[in-house]
Amino acid sequence: MYTTDLRSPAAKAADPGVADEPQDLVDAFEARVAADAVIEPKDWMPVAYRRTLIRQISQHAHSEIVGMLPEGNWITRAPSLRRKAILLAKVQDEGGHGLYLYCAAETLGTTREAMIEALHAGKAKYSTIFNYPTLTWADIGAIGWLVDGAAIMNQIPLQRTSYGPYARAMVRICKEESFHQRQGFELITVLASGTAAQKRMAQDALNRWWWPSLMMFGPPDEASPNTAQSMRWRIKRDTNDELRQKFVDVTVPQAEAIGLKVPDPDLTWNGEKDEGRGGYDFGPIDWEEFYAVVRGEGALAKERMAARVKAWEEGAWVREAAVVHADKRRDRQEAA
Amino acid sequence: MSEARDWPLWEVFVRSRGGLAHKHVGSVHAADAAMALEAARDVYTRRMEGVSLWVAPSAAITASDPAEAGPLFEPAEDKVYRHPTFYSIPDGVKHI
Prior knowledge:
heterodimer, A: about 325 residues, B: about 100 residues, about 20% helix
C-alpha cells in the first residue's frame, strides 16, 4: 500500500543505494532501529532511509489528498442532510490526514512545494485505488467500508514505525479512520436491507471494489523486493500478503452479516491455515490490472491529476493574497 | 508553481483541557500567526482536542543536538542524591 514502491523500474534503477557512509554510524543506526528505538528528525540516518521515508510518507499524503476527489464528487448528491454532514466531515478528515503526513515528510528535509510539484508532474505516485470511479451512492459506502478498512489494516502497524513524526501522524490518523470505516459500513448496511434495487446497488459496489481493495496491499511478497529492507528499518511492519490475508479474514464475515456476497468463486474457509487458526483461501488477483493502474492508464488517472492541478492553480491567488494580507497586517502593527 | 513566496512553517501546541500544559501536535503552513492559528484549529482540533492553541514559527525554535545528548544529559545520571529514594529513613517514621 503506502509502503509499496510504485515507481517504474527505470526510476528505481536511476536511484541506486548510497555507498560511502561512515560504517560506524550506519551500524549504530541499524542497531538502534533493531532495538525498536524511535528515530527523530535531527538524528543521523542513512540517506537511503531518509529517501525511502520521504517517498513513502509523501506517497501516503498524496493518497489522502487525491482520495478526497472520488468522495467529494458525491457531497452535493448525498441522499440526506445526515449523510451529507458525515461525508463532508470525512472528506475534511482526508485533507487533514494529508496535512499531518506532509508535515511529517517535511521534517526529513523536503518541502511542501517540492512534494506537490512532484505529484502534479506525475513523478510521485498515490494509491491506485483512487483511480477507480465512484459510479453510485453505494460506492461511497464501499469506499468507507473496504478502502478505509484496508487502509486501517495497513496503518495500525505503522503507528509503531521507526520514524517518530510518521508514527505520531499515524496515531492521529488511525483514531479518525475508524469513523470512516463505520460510516461506510452503516451506509452499505442500510442499502443492503433496503429495496431490491438498493440491495443490487450495494452488491454491485462490493463487486467492483472488492478486488481493487485487495490490490491496495501491493504486489505479492515474492514481487516486493524492498520489503525485507523496509521491515528491517521498521518502516513496514507486516508483509503485503500478511495484511491482505488479515483483511480478507475480517471482511468476509462482515459481508455475510449484511447478506452480501464477496465476488470470488474460489473463496473458501480453510481451517488448516495460519497454523490451525484458520483463514480464507481466495482466488488469484489480476496483477496486470494493478500495474496498468499504477502506470496511470485509463481516463480517470488523468482526470484526477487535472482536478488537482486545477485546484492548485485556481487557488494561487488565495495563496498570494494571504501573503500580501500578512505583510499589510505586519506593516500596520509596526506603524502603530 | 506560484510566484508568491511560500508560506512559512509554524509549530502547533494544543492545551487539551484547562490545567494541562500545551503539547506539541504538529505543524501548519500559513502566511502569518493569525492565519496559522485558524489553520491549526481546522487541522488539529476537529474533535474537541483542545481548549487553547499556541503557534510558533518553526524557525524560531532552537533544539538540542541528538549527537550531543550524552554530554548534555549524562551529568544527571550519577546524582542519585537528587531523588528522595536515595535517603534511608528509620522504620516507623511517618509523613516524610
